[in-house]
Amino acid sequence: MRQLLPGFLFAMLWASASVATKYGISAGDPLVLATVRFLIAGSVMLGYAYLRPGSSPWPRGAEWRHLLVFSVLNTSLYLGAFVLALREVSAGIGSLATATNPLFITFFSAVLLKRPLRWYEGAGIGLGLAGVGLATYPLLERSYATVNGLVILMAGMVSVSLATVYYARVAWRLPTIAINGWQVLFGGVVLAPVTLLWGDLGATRFNATFWGAVLWLVFPVSVAALQLWFYLVRQDAVRASLWLFLCPIFGFLYAFVLLGEPVSGFTYLGTALVLGGLYLAQRDKFSPAKQKNAV
Predict the structure, then answer these.
(1) 37-63 burial, b if ≥16 CB within 10 A, otherwise e?
(2) Which pLDDT band, with edges at 50, 70 and 90, does 295 fall under?
(3) Segments making up each domain of the chain, as ranges
(4) Per residue in 241-269, pLDDT tens?
(5) Less packed terminus of the chain by CB within 10 Å, N or C?
(6) pLDDT in the model for residue 104
(7) Digit-coded pLDDT (tens) for 93-112
(8) Digit-coded pLDDT (tens) for 219-236
(9) How confident is the model at residue 293 (pLDDT cuts 50, 70, 90)?
């Protein structure tokens, strides 16, 4: 019961990022939206980390380098690619693609750690990617997605998966809130020159739609959803991962209700394949022995 309400809230909030981004880029350039979001979110989290009683320690030595590498992979490249892709890809597909993150993590952890990729992990990865392709196929014909947008989206998935593997290999001394604050802020700082050079500031309308999207992406998504996720992981890391399975379902629901994006039999079947692939690739996590060790 300790995970039920936080789990549902996490899935609902995390899945809303695609729709909020769609609203934001309807009013402004994607790079401008991303940069403003990162700078504000990073500042808010660092303010909480360092201004509250019992504040966090400051990074030192190699931690600065680790934070910079993590921020480039996890924020500048991944979320930068995500917001650019959503100019050409539906919000529902954005949510579904995000759900494939554990599949890419499984693949890259095997490659980088030089361990054999088990047959069911490979099958799960193939099944998940096939599901994304199936759900996307009719949208390509109806101009709700483009091949270019899908390529950018998948490149972002690769980047965030590498970031996750990198994060797991570092012996962090900093608390989670400080790590996230620094990496999001650094991500915005790194992206800022790119935005100034190639972003279209003149096309950005800093109106209620733009700021509403920014504030939603900062507080409910970057702050609240992430803190809920870390709470769930502390309670039970295995059960926490199950809540990721709800994210594409909520994502398609939001996209259908709020944006009028189409939902078809391809959507249902593709989502089912992705969820099946996620379970298959991570089935070790759900074995009784693994669950016992995770508690």
Answers:
(1) bbbbbbebbbebbeeeeeebeebeeeb
(2) very low
(3) 4-294
(4) 677 778 888 989 999 999 998 888 888 89
(5) N
(6) 84
(7) 998 888 787 788 888 888 88
(8) 999 889 888 887 887 777
(9) very low
Mean pLDDT, residues 26-53: 93
Per-residue confidence (pLDDT) for residue 294, from 0 to 100: 42
Read off the tokens for 96: 């579904």
CA 252 – CA 265 distance, rounded (Å): 13
C-alpha to C-alpha distances, 176 to 215, 221, 224, 229, 234, nearest whole angstrom: 21, 16, 13, 11, 12
3-state secondary structure string across 202-216: HHCCCCHHHHHHHHH
How is residue 79 written in tokens? Answer: 């979320």
Distance CA 22, CA 36 (A): 15
Q: Are 281 and 49 in contact (CB under 8 A)?
A: no
Phi and psi (nearest 5°) for 112?
-75, -30
CA distances from 142 to 130, 131, 139, 154, 268 (A): 19, 18, 5, 20, 17
SS3 call for 89: strand
Sequence-distant (6+) residues with CB within 8 A of 293 are none
pTM listed for this prediction: 0.86
